[in-house]
Design a protein that fits this description.
The protein is of the alpha/beta class. It is 45% helix and 12% strand. The protein is built from six helices and three strands; from the N terminus they run H-E-H-H-E-H-H-E-H. It has a three-stranded parallel beta sheet with strand order 1-2-3.
């Protein structure tokens, strides 16, 4: 009786495993997971050569994406010029140089960049800024 019970238990486990595998493969969604990194101090607050080194190390570990931080208030003009089109990233007045090197390094390492935009310039907040919002935080 013990042998039959072990065979039955093994068969049940096999059926559960196959059933779970079949369900998992039928669920819609990506077939793989992409990994990435987010490290402002390693990728953006270092010399270009050190940034390139960290990007290549991240890629060697299998990362395909890096999240880069963009402080809108630091790339936008301090005072909004007349006629300035804030929604146009090519508008005169924007200075993307603080981000350019990190994007170049990520691209050279074969990684995709995802930009996380924080801190709007004061002129973009306007008078309706929520009372609990902290400027420059």
């Amino acid at each position: 009786m013990g042998r039959h019970l072990r065979v039955l238990a093994a068969s049940a486990m096999l059926m559960l495993t196959l059933s779970a595998t079949a369900r998992a493969t039928s669920v819609p969604g990506p077939s793989s997971m992409s990994t990435g990194f987010d490290d402002f101090s390693a990728f953006q607050q270092v010399s270009p050569s050190a940034g390139a080194l960290w990007f290549s190390r991240a890629r060697a570990l299998g990362a395909r994406t890096v999240r880069l931080t963009v402080y809108w208030s630091s790339v936008a003009p301090h005072t909004r010029p007349p006629g300035f089109q804030a929604s146009n990233p090519g508008a005169a007045g924007y200075d993307w140089s603080s981000l350019d090197e990190a994007v170049r390094n990520a691209t050279a390492a074969g990684m995709n960049s995802v930009l996380m935009v924080l801190e709007a310039p004061t002129w973009a907040e306007g008078p309706q800024m929520p009372g609990n919002a902290t400027e420059g935080a």
